[in-house]
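Hi all, a correction to my earlier message: I attached the wrong file for Alpha-amylase. Here's the right sequence:
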Amino acid sequence: MKHPFHQIHLYEIGSRLFCGKKGKPIPALFDEIEKKAPFVWADEIWLMGVWKNSPSSRKIAQTMPELQPDFHHVKSNLEPDDVYGSPYAIYDYVPDPLITETNDLTEIYEWFHSKNKKLILDFVPNHLAIDSPLVKTYPHLFLKAEESNDLKNTFLHPNGQMYFHGRDPYFDGWTDTIQWDFSNPEVEVFHVQILRHIAKQCDGVRCDMAMLPLPDVFEKTHGKRSVYNWQTVIQTIKTEFPEFKFYAEVYWGLEETLLSLGFDATYDKDLYDAMYHKELPKINEILKHPSKKNQIQFLENHDERRAKQSFGEQNKIYFSLLQANPNIILFHDGQELGYRKKIPVQMIRADEETPNLETLEFYQRVFSVVKKRGKTIHYEETNYSEFNQFPIFTRLIHSESQTELFLWNYQNTTVSGWIPYQEGIFYQKELKDLVSGNIFPQEKNKEGIYYQLKPNQLQWFIF
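and the right structure:
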């Protein structure tokens, strides 16, 4: 049975690192962005880290002892100016001068639209930078600590008040941040104002740690009940900006909760973890029964280790599986080059890594094929036989211009058998596997196409 197939390709570019390495703002780098291999594949560009940097966050990052080893790991002869501060300790929701010389992102937004790309930006609902001018203007909107006997995860603000740092319930606070007080209903109103401002400059937001304002989570973390209502926030913004998107970074099994409150999509950490731990039957189970809800699936992002480091050559297999699944695929800048070093988000300069050309060639093959998919796409499972009755993962993706055949062995033994000729699958003199780049000469056989797959091997053919 055929099912509608829809994917969104979300391409994350760390804007501070990109601009810091080049020494130029984004508008001066449009040509370089367009030349990046994933750009042709991408539907949406997530420019991570565009908002104004916090001087206090920069000073903390430059001097915090536990951060220094990671900085030195990716930058020889580390200089203080190589460390800029966390993009998630936002000073204010205005563009950082590293990103653009203008006071808004209109020029950047319009350029991406001219290339038929949507622009996604950050919204950090849980906290701001400790030195944000908004704390001075609205001191009552942040979580005060004067009633607490435990002064851990607190700091004295220059206004004379003790405040809590932003944090989640399982770890100590982020010391460059101040916690919004979600027990105060005015915070929700103020966030709507911030989001209205953001929505005029982009097509959606990726909401950092979006579960932290939830009533149960906030109470577990801070002992106070949150009155913050994501549903009201999202509906209010979508009333004015109907096409505006809300993507949630979320963990702890709270994905369904946020989707029910109006988020357009949520992180799918379960699939990532199954791939990381090589739980092949679990991967198959997830892919065989695609969720009807939008999930953001990935092999890496700025929080995770590089895909090449985590998965080695299997990153090709797992990315191919993502391309066979109806979903939102999050792709991280540099993933296509096979980079292995995870660069801390506080940095704006790092040593250049040598690209892995074999990895780049794989991604270029994939981007080219996926770009040829038409607007009307369907998927279905394909008929197959396996000599020892082992099940395998099979999928056909039909579009106007091509049919794609995916074969993946999730068993712990070699499998082999036949794929019969059927709709979209026909005899060709040779078949090229997108994953390995290998070409297989074919002999016409009434049984169809012969396959043989080692454990965790995937082949991807185009007809």
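Sorry for the mix-up. The mean pLDDT is 96.
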